[in-house]
Amino acid sequence: MAVSEEECSNAKVRSSSSPSSSSSSAPSNGVHYLAKSVLRGSAVLHAIYGHFRSSFSYDIVFGKETSIELAIIGEDGIVQAICEQPLFGTIKDMAVVPWNDKFHAQTPRVQGKDHLVVISDSGKLTFLTFCNEMHRFFPLTHIQLSNPGNSRHQLGRMLAIDSSGCFVATSAYEDQLALFSLSASGGSEIIDERILYPPENEGNANVARSIQRPLTSGTIWSMCFISRDSSHPSKEHNPVLAIILNRRGALLNELLLLRWDIRDHAISYISQFVESGPLAHDIVEVPHSNGFALMFRVGDVLLMDLRDALHPRCVCRTSLNYFPNAVEEQNFVEDSRVTDFDEDGSFNVAARALLELQDYDPMCIDGEGSNVKSTLKHACSWSWEPDNDKNPRMVFCADTGEFFMIEISYDGEDLKVNLSDCLYKDLSCKTLLWVDDGFLAALVEMGDGIVLKMENESLQYISPIQNVAPILDMSIVDYHDEERDQMFACCGVAPEGSLRIIRSGIIVEKLLKTAPIYQGITGTWTVGMKVADLHHSFLVLSFVEETRVLSVGLSFTDVTDLVGFQPDVCTLACGLVGDGLLVQIHQTAVRLCLPTRAAHPEGIPLSSPVCSSWFPANMGINLGAVGHDLIVVSTSNPCFLYILGVRCLSPFHYEIFEMQHLRLLNELSCISIPQKYFERRRSSFMNHAVGSCAAALPVGVDTGNTFVIGTHKPSVEVVSFVPGDGLRIIASGTISLTSSLGTTVSGCIPQDVRLVLADRFYVLSGLRNGMLLRFEWPSASSMFSVEIPSHGCSIGSCMLSSDTAISNTAAISLEPKMLAVDSIDNTMDDLPINLQLIATRRIGITPVFLVPLSDSLDSDMIALSDRPWLLHAARHSLSYTSISFQPSTHATPVCSVECPKGILFVADNSLHLVEMVHSTRLNVQKFHLGGTPRKVQYHSESKLLLVMRTELSNDNDTCSSDICCVDPLSGSTVSSFKLERGETGKSMELVKIGNEQVLVIGTSLSSGPAIMPSGEAESTKGRVIVLCLENLQNSDSGSMTFCSKAGSSSQRTSPFREIVGYAAEQLSSSSLCSSPDDTSCDGVKLEETETWQLRFVSATTLPGMVLAICPYLDRFFLASAGNSFYVCGFANDNKRVKKFAVGRTRFMIMSLTAYHTRIAVGDCRDGILFYAYHVESKKLEQLYCDPSQRLVAGCVLMDVDTAVVSDRKGSIAVLSRSDRFECTGSPECNLTLNCAYYMGEIAMSIRKGSFTYKLPADDILTGCDGVITKMDASNNTIVASTLLGSIIVFIPLSREEFELLQAVQSRLVVHPLTAPVLGNDHHEFRSRENPVGVPKILDGDMLAQFLELTSSQQEAVLSLPLGPPDTIKTNLKPFSTLPISISQVVQLLERVHYALN
């Protein structure tokens, strides 16, 4: 946790009167940034289990310091993410308050749900409930415990919850605690009574003093409630709290029992238990035992009988160090979890403090190492088996990584502890969670967690839980196939160090690709043989003048003639109208086909298919759709709509007949028929059918007779057909979109339209201009309401105002009748329901096609436009995520036994079969390297990754660090260069010397710390090593350059045979990529005859550890050594490093970066210092210094005058040369702090980005919205990676864009739907560790919530009055007093969303 201790006043800024903090104005040089998380931290610090979505859902909540993730473990044992939300605060502890049947909910939507209770740096105790409609947690109430921050002397460190859910306790690190009783009345107050200790106002000082000393004077290590007989009402007894306490100066911890006398409103001392022996560290209540608890000590565990609180006693002592049966070693991964202090202080102490939630002052960078391990085992995590009230069982993990089970059984009147043998061995777990179906989630600090399953009294490995934390270094490389970036990151620590390839979007696993020979594809469909089939039987490909039908299975075989489809026409639509009855719609006819058994085992037993056709009268069909027992086609010029049915005349003889036709006032643009039955399929992933908010069908919508159409009016219409009664319009929504300037948006014709039933019934429409719309029935908004007592209003009331306008971007009007035909009955005289336009989004400029992933009405969809997106059907408003795949023209789901989640994309005239698991938590590919990967560089010539590893484990102990070359396609190590024994790699850079490149490495030759407690450098030594990477085919022994690949070719050949065109393709193992993002299917691999090898060139010893290397001016490089840095080059013989100049700082140098002639030096006290090197005189000159003390973690120069720097306290700042004074060469010429941002996470690596945030529509929309200014951000974007595994992108904005979004942010931070859920003051949180009055970087995570709202909610947000004065700078354009256009805000935020996805 990046903390801000009150005691660290010396780390604060020197003076608030400095030039950087004397004004609250915006940056003088026009530097404006927006910070957006593209990957939230993956380090899980807390994990709890409960019924959060409904009383019968089984949910996991992962607490990740600054965000929370709701997930489940599926039937296959894979952790699947449901949602994740930022907190705009820092979690200290979290727990679940179980639902108690004695409670009465304020609203039925909360009834039966468990509550999530969190204490955080807001200083508040927060109760959260999950809202299924909004798909996120919302606060029920906040209780102020202390001042915001992370002080050890105030409440808010630890939580304990009574097993009945009636009482909550929280403590500080030392001395203080508070107890709360929860109200069962269901009123607005969740808390019934509370008591603090010590009391805030002590009436009798002598009495208070007499009871204070034996109570909680000391450090509180652990606490839990001791339950009473559950048959008694909870309020009839006073709760008992057990505490593990370390009194100041005591050698042993004691068990202290306290009672809360509710009637007397006092906390009283009951008894204490101290026994000589190992150190006690945790106390855990035994569930359903009514008075028993386990006390964990170093080396053993005690079963405590606390039923008689006056006389606590130990009834059983179990050692953790001796077991009768050893476990076979080969079943386990050897554990060598690193806890040593890193010499340069770069991450181990910081990361350990972050992940263990310990107080840590990053300014105090030295400390004692923890490399002395105890020989006694101790439990570091545990979890009880859920729903076991007979013989409670616990699985715990020891610090050795061994898993054991404790079973509590009755032996007469007492309980007995049965300790199992070792069940499994892996890394030591930070958090352990036992969930339903015998699954256990084991989370480690700095590596992947695992899912285990309890089977036959043993634990079996099931699947990994990805964790990329900590990210120690990264390299951003353009992904050549898809013209998007991917990141190579050094993740984890020894022994689980790995290289990860991180990409944005949803993972797709590439299974199959054909040659680019499929030009002119106009449509793709998959159909089954029967309505109830779980798998598809046929794949239909339509071309401009041709149609092909392929069988789906282990092979794709052409069966067009056996199915009966007409092959020489372009198919407009096809589908299954009934069991065994396939329909093909083309321009001249509707064709009904009965496939043969040769095409499908359940086909007709004839040699050729049976077919019949229906033809329109002298008209051409332009659209069609097939549903169960229903076919709908339309014609143009004249415009008619035909409703067709199918009837059986004799066995194997069916005919299509017309049930109704009518003339249209407007031509149709699309038709969609949902599946016959509206019942939603239960999904283990989304489990939409949770809560009591089951969506009711609107009036007029019936099963099996409803479809939806899009018209050229333009509009969307929901139509119902009942045989005998005819057609009837149920609901209609006219599409009329306007820009912020009042001009009509063109191209609003629906291209595709779908009905969706997920918690509510709504209509989705993709337009031909690249926009996406969502319509809802007007009454839907009144169905949902979750009270927020702390804000005084309900979520439901904030979502829609039924009497107000929908949006200033749309105007809905409706003609009385869209369909005109005499046969419609008199009920059509009633107007259809006017659909409300809830949300609009632009996802491109090409037409939007909607492709459901299944026939279920609650299925997620692929939205195809300029690029593929995954549209989340159950989310509020419109929510979509990019799919990590190239732009495609068509897509269709392919479900077979071999590939149950397949999708067929058509891209670049090729067919791509991929498998998408959109519940996968991270789009990350892992290459296990071992050791701790510290640095990574990408060499474009050889297409190899150069990785520096430390803490390698070798049997002969000859080397602990090396430089290895890794193939990014396979993860294999091509070659390596080992450092000398006792030498540790510290830094590494590719340095360009003229037209040549070398690899320069900085090392340490000394053991022990690099830095004194004062911040000055220790007396150490290091080396600068120069290497070159040679292609042995073209190597020149006298050259120090990287050699080009010999015989390389850009010509790629497909690794797959074509899958259609009268040939069958086997889905063999050779067709599978090695991982979800393995580019070996498309990329260029190294030639098998090529060998690249690192060759030693030279080495130079320097008087200090070389913690930083940096290229400089294409002729030099910079190298630090202690508190000195050198300008280095190469002698004429190209073999020896030559030092040209040296500069010195007062403290240890942590980073070096350069831009043209400017040099930025970051040290561990004085922050960033600017230097210039004069080549002629060979002298370094200090130009500017940091106005604040700063422990630099990373730095990058944007230009010669601007630096972006991250520190070890969780902040990032932009500093630049001030324009208000001339450069005099004096160190007193301070840099100006332009803007700052508190992340709450330490960013160790900062890089420049390389993309421009711009929608393809920007070129078309130029000039439509005056405030949206085009700005090239390609060279000014900043990418930062953190120790918790986050990746944050800082995007530059123009002044107009900044002012607009700042006005929006000031309202979002106070609106009940978007305010920080933990009760943090958003401005205070983002301003920590920075001077008062410094402009802030905009919070992209806060602003992103605006896109998740409906149009009416967006209006409600923008209509709020101005927020606190410090959220809007006085000299900015007062957007708060001017109407803010929703379309302007949405368009700008869509740009950011589009670019970052």
Automatic annotation (TrEMBL):
GO molecular function, one term: zinc ion binding
One biological process term in Gene Ontology: ubiquitin-dependent protein catabolic process
InterPro entries according to UniProt: RING_finger_E3_ligase, Znf_RING, Znf_RING/FYVE/PHD
Lineage top rank: taxon: Eukaryota
SUPFAM superfamilies cross-referenced by the UniProt entry: RING/U-box
PANTHER family from the UniProt entry: RING ZINC FINGER-CONTAINING PROTEIN, SI:CH211-59O9.10
Official protein name in the record: Uncharacterized protein
Native organism: Populus trichocarpa
